[in-house]
């Protein structure tokens, strides 16, 4: 690799790493993980195979790093439910979910990537599995944080059980919307009102 004047080895390394991850994102989106070869990464990124192996070890390492980077990018856009603590609980939930869906609408590649890695033998890799679990655990924790003041403000066991069930439902709903988004262009934001209406109905019971 030719080093640019004034650059450092760490800067060049970071740049080549990102080039490979950018290439992987494009290739997985188009062809799926199984349709991506190291030779494709090299052709797309303009870097030799030695760079791929140096930074990531193997193709699974590329996938895990891509998931991690995409999660970090989206997490930076994602609101924390506590950002809306000044609102009434149900309004806090709606404001958080609205902002979260807006972030997903701006980064549809995120859940498409999760969808792309959810099939095939690579999903059972510990390298990939650990990253996916971290992503899903973070999403679940946000749902619990957003729902608890609405349905279990006093910490009762029935309320907490309902929060856990709805957190799983909310996470599954956003997973499913990645498919709908790919097939018919449905936005994540279009589902805010129906979901919040469901929660309002539960609160009134």
TrEMBL record:
Q: Which UniProt keywords apply?
A: DNA-binding, Transcription, Transcription regulation
Where does the source fall among the domains of life? Bacteria
Residues annotated as DNA-binding region? 37-56
Question: Which PANTHER family does its entry note?
Answer: HTH-TYPE TRANSCRIPTIONAL REGULATOR YJDC (PTHR47506:SF1), TRANSCRIPTIONAL REGULATORY PROTEIN (PTHR47506)
* Name of protein: TetR family transcriptional regulator
A single Gene Ontology MF term assigned here is:
DNA binding
Q: Which Gene3D superfamilies match?
A: Tetracycline Repressor, domain 2 (1.10.357.10)
Check the record and name the InterPro entries matching this protein.
Answer: Homeodomain-like_sf, HTH_TetR, Tet_transcr_reg_TetR-rel_C_sf
Q: Where would one find the signal peptide in this protein? A: none
Segments forming domain HTH tetR-type: 14-74
């Amino acid at each position: 690799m030719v080093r640019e004047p004034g650059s450092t080895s760490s800067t060049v390394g970071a740049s080549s790493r990102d080039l490979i991850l950018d290439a992987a994102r494009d290739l997985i989106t188009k062809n799926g993980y199984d349709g991506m070869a190291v030779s494709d990464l090299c052709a797309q990124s303009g870097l030799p195979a030695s760079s791929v192996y140096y930074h990531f070890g193997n193709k699974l390492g590329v996938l895990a790093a891509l998931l991690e980077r995409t999660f970090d990018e989206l997490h930076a856009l994602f609101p924390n439910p506590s950002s809306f603590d000044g609102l009434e609980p149900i309004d806090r939930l709606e404001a958080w979910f609205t902002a979260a869906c807006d972030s997903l609408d701006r980064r549809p590649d995120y859940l498409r990537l999760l969808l792309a890695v959810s099939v095939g033998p690579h999903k059972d890799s510990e390298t990939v599995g650990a990253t996916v679990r971290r992503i899903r655990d973070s999403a679940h924790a946000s749902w619990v944080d957003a729902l608890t003041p609405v349905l279990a403000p006093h910490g009762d066991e029935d309320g907490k059980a309902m929060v856990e069930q709805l957190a799983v439902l909310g996470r599954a709903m956003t997973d499913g919307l990645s498919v709908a988004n790919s097939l018919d262009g449905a936005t994540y934001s279009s589902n805010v009102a129906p979901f919040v209406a469901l929660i309002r109905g539960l609160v009134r019971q």
